[in-house]
Amino acid sequence: MKTEFLTLLTQIRHLFGWLPGLLSSILMLCVAGLVAEMFSRFITKLIVRIPGQKRGAFVRSFTMAMQRPVRIMLVIVFVGTALPVSGLPYDIMQATTHALVVLFVLMLGYAAVVATRILSDAYLKRINGKDDKDDILLRTHMTQVRVLRRTSDLLIGLLTIGAALMTFEPVRQYGLSLFASAGAASLVVGLAARPLLTNLFAGMQIAMTQPIRMEDLIIINGDWAWVEEITSTYVVLRVWDWRRHIVPISYFLENTFQNWTHNSAALIGVVFLHLDFNAPMDRIRERLREIVHSAPLWDGKEFAVQVADCNAHVMTVRVIASARSAMQSWDLRCEIREQIIAYLRDECPEALPRERLSHVASVSGLDVMTDPSSLSPPVMRPPPGAYLGPRNGAGGGGMGLSDGGQGHG
C-alpha cells in the first residue's frame, strides 16, 4: 500500500512537471497532506456513528476531542512518507524531515495531555453520576484526579520538550556532557528549582494523604475558606465574601490549619446566651427545644441546653445543635438566636441581663461619712508669711520662724 501511495504521488508530481521543480515538489507534499486530511475525516465519521449510550458515547467524545492532534500527526506521517519521492534537494529534505520529527513529537505530547484530561473527566463524571455517592469519597477522588492530572501534564510537557530538544545533535551532545561533568551547575540548578520541586512533591503527597480536598471548608488566617482549586504548585481558597487566598501547596504540609470537613461535613454549632439569675431555665430550655426541633436545618442528632458558666452579673447558657454542613450550622445558629431573643423580650423580660449596684448604709457608716475629722488627720501648718528664709550671718545654714518679726535660733 505504501508503494502504491508513493507511485500515485510520483505521478502527481509529473503532472506538475511544467512548473519549477521546487514548486512542483511542494504541491506534491500538499496533496499528500490533503489525502491524510480526507482519510482522517473519513475515519472520524465512521467512529462517531458507533451506537451506545455509555461506551459508545465515551468513544464518540474521545474521538472528537482527539481528532485535531491525531489529524495533524497523520498529515505529518503522510508528508514524511512522501518526502523521498518529492525531488527536493538533499539539504532541504533533511531540514524538512527534522522539522516534521520535532512537530510530531510535540503533537504526540499534546495528544497525551488531551487523552489524560479526557480520561480523568470521564472518571469524575462516572463517580459524580452515582446515586449512592458519598460526598467525602467524591471530593477525595476529585482531589486525587485533579492533582495527579496537573502533575502528569507537567511531566508530559517536560518529557515532550526534552525529547524534541534531543533531536538536535548539538543540544544532545551538550546535554550529555553537562550531565556527565557539571556537578556545580547541577547543584545551582537544583537549588534554583527547589521551590518548584518542593511544591510538586507536596502536591503529590496531598493527593495521596488527603489533608485537604476539593470543596473542603478550612480556617486560614481567621477566615472561613473553601478549597476551590488545587494545582501542582498552589491552592486557591474561596472566602465567604468571594475573596480568594492563593496559598503555596507546601503550606498545608508545613503549618497547622483547621479542616472542618475532613471526615464529615456535619458540625455542632454553639450558641451562648447571657441571662439574668432570675431567668426561668425550665421555660427557656423548653422553648429552645421547640425552636431546634422545628428547624429544618437541624439534622436531628445533637441538642443540649446547659448553664456553662456564671459571674457576678449574669449566667452563661450554652446551646448546642448539630447540622449537616458548616453553612447550615451557621444559619441554624442565627435562627436560634433570633427566635430565642424574641421570646425573652416578649415572654421572659426578667431573664434579660441587667446591671446591679447596691449601697449599704449603717449608723456608724453615716457617722464616718459626716464626721470631717474622720476623713483625714489634722495637719499643723505655719501661718502665711511665717517663713523668713536663712538668717544673715548664720553661716548660710540657719533657718528660723518669726513671730512678730523676731527670729529664733
Provide the gyration radius in Å: 44 Å
Helix content: 55-70%
Structural class of the secondary structure composition? Answer: alpha+beta
- Can you summarize the main beta sheet? 5 strands, antiparallel
Strand order of the largest sheet: 4-3-2-1-5
What string gives the helices and strands in order?
HHHHHHHHEEEEHEEHEEHHEE
Low-pLDDT segments, ≥5 res: 177-187, 393-409
**Anisotropy-based shape:** elongated
Q: What is the number of strand segments?
A: 10
Q: First CA to last CA: what distance?
A: 143 Å
Mean pLDDT comes to 75
Please tally the helical runs, counting DSSP H or I stretches of 4 or more residues. Answer: 12
Taken as a percent bin, the fraction of beta residues is 5-15%
Features:
3-stranded antiparallel beta sheet, 409 residues, disordered C terminus, 5-stranded antiparallel beta sheet, single chain
How would you summarize this macromolecular structure in one to three sentences?
With 409 residues, the chain is α+β, with helices and mostly antiparallel strands. It is built from twelve helices and ten strands.
Structural description of this entry:
This protein is an alpha+beta fold and 409 residues long. Helices cover 55% and strands 15% of the residues. It has twelve helices and ten strands. It has helices at 2-15, 21-47, 55-82, 90-128, 135-166, 169-181, 183-192, 194-209, 251-254, 281-294, 326-346, 363-370; strands at residues 217-220, 223-230, 234-239, 244-248, 258-259, 267-275, 298-310, 315-323, 402-403, 406-407. The strands form three sheets. The chain has a five-stranded antiparallel β-sheet with strand order 4-3-2-1-5. Strand 3 and strand 4 form a beta hairpin. Helix 2 (21-47) packs antiparallel against helix 3 and helix 3 (55-82) runs antiparallel to helix 4 (90-128). The longest helix is centred in the N-terminal third of the chain and has 39 residues, at 90-128. The model is unreliable at 177-187 and 393-409 (pLDDT under 50).
